[in-house]
Every structure is written in C-alpha cells, then in structure tokens.
Amino acid sequence: MNARPKKSFGQHFLHEKRYIERIVSSISPKPEDVVVEIGPGEGALTLPLLAAAGKLTAIELDTDLIPDLQARAAAVGELRIVHSDVLKVDFTALARELGAERLRIAGNLPYYISSPILFHCVDHAAAIRDMHFMLQKEVVDRMAAEPGSKVYGRLSVMLQLACRVEPLFTVPPGAFRPPPKVDSAVVRLLPLPAEQRHDADPERVHAIVKAAFAQRRKTLGNALRQLMDAAAIEAAGIDPKARAETLAPLDFVRLAKVPTQA
Q: Any idea which architecture 7-196 has in CATH?
C-alpha cells in the first residue's frame, strides 16, 4: 500500500526495513503481551508487531487507511482497530476491556501533537507497562534532558516524574515517506512503580511546573507569585532567586507539598 500522506494528520510513513526491525526488536513483543499501537498508518510496524504478539489493538483516526490495514493483517494475526482520536482513548478503561493488567504501547507519533499524546499517556501510567515511541529527535532530547540543560523544561519534568526515559536511537529523514525536515528518534518510557511515584497533588505539581517554565528567565519568586510567595518557596528548601531549569523534578514536588495559605 502507498497511501498519500495527509498533512492534516501529520503523517510520515516509516518504510525503511532496518529501522522497522530495530524498533520491533527494541519492543520485543511476546504472545502474552497486550500491545496497543497509536497511529498504525500503512502498517509498517503493525504487521511485524502483530506477527510477534499474535494479536494487537491499533488506534487510527484516518478512515482511509483502515480497510487495507485490516485486509493485510488478516493473514498475520488478530488485529482490532479502534477508530478514534488517541487523545479521546481512555487507556485505563481499554486495559480493563482487553483483560490486561498493563498495556504495552507503541507508535510513530504525529509530531504536531506529540506532547499532548505523551501527557495523555502519562495520565494513564498505572495501566501501562512501557511505551516505545518514534518522535522528533528534538522532543526526545527535551524528554530526557537533565537540570541545567538548555532544553530542560516542562516536558522533561512531567515525564521524568512519571517515567524512566530511555532514548534508544536516531532515525534519519530518509526512512520516512515523505521525509520530515528533521531527524527522528525512538524512545522508551517505563512508568515508575507505585512506590516510586510522588504523592503530591498532580494538578498542583502541573500548575507549578507550567508557571515556573512559562518565562524561563524569571526567578521562581517572580514566576510563581500567583501560586506561592517567597516564604513558601523557602519552606520547600529552595531559593526563590533560582530559576526553574536548575531544579530537579522532585524539587517541584517539594514546592507542591508546601501548604497553601488559606
């Protein structure tokens, strides 16, 4: 199949066999796994994943791609296609529906909505065993960035508070049709076990992280003034004159746990 990629869906179809094989090898699906693929496209990853696992659930928004994908998968294994916007899929409910303790999620994510998809998956991290995603390399660099890095920011903090982030390898533009204008990369996300997750209010953590990085050059005292004063920041053991990019992810949890004034 050679479907015409749709700009409106941000489609770049992976076609180079060696990278497909490398991704499938990194995932290493087993028959007992419950695998969910986001955006199967032409099935470059779908069919080898299906061959390895025997069954697979794919989430696809583009109705034009579904009939051919179903036809090609029929001789390979049991493919279930969920026709939906992935941001509307409740992965926790899907895991229950599929009888899975935890899902294994994979996909070549549309670059223009990759961050919302990542945050959406993190919201369901307790129902997910691991995630393997193809993303713009610059996004993967941000996901794995350490404090002090120029690309360390909101995405870095929120993902690292929920998952272990493991960049795997880079994929060049020529591996796709049409070639994107940037390098891509494959990343593995491993949700943290319950005992390693923070116990602060998630909405409070998110609000603090978002405000702290909204204007990177501001000190925390200025950036967070609508949420907490300098005394509250100091109560968390953090200098109000520090900037967000110098804080480790758990420092934001400490800020979120400072009691708010009545």
A: 3-Layer(aba) Sandwich (3.40)
Our separate counts of H helices and E strands in the chain read 11, 9
CATH for 202-256 is 1.10.8.100
pTM of the model: 0.91
Known binding positions? 12, 14, 39, 60, 85, 108
Distance CA 258, CA 251 (A): 11
Domain residue limits, the chain: 7-196, 202-256
What residues form the annotated binding site for S-adenosyl-L-methionine?
12, 14, 39, 60, 85, 108
Reported as a single tens digit per residue, the pLDDT across 118-138 is 999 999 999 999 999 999 999
pLDDT digits (tens, 9 = 90+) for 136-166: 999 999 999 999 999 999 999 999 999 999 9
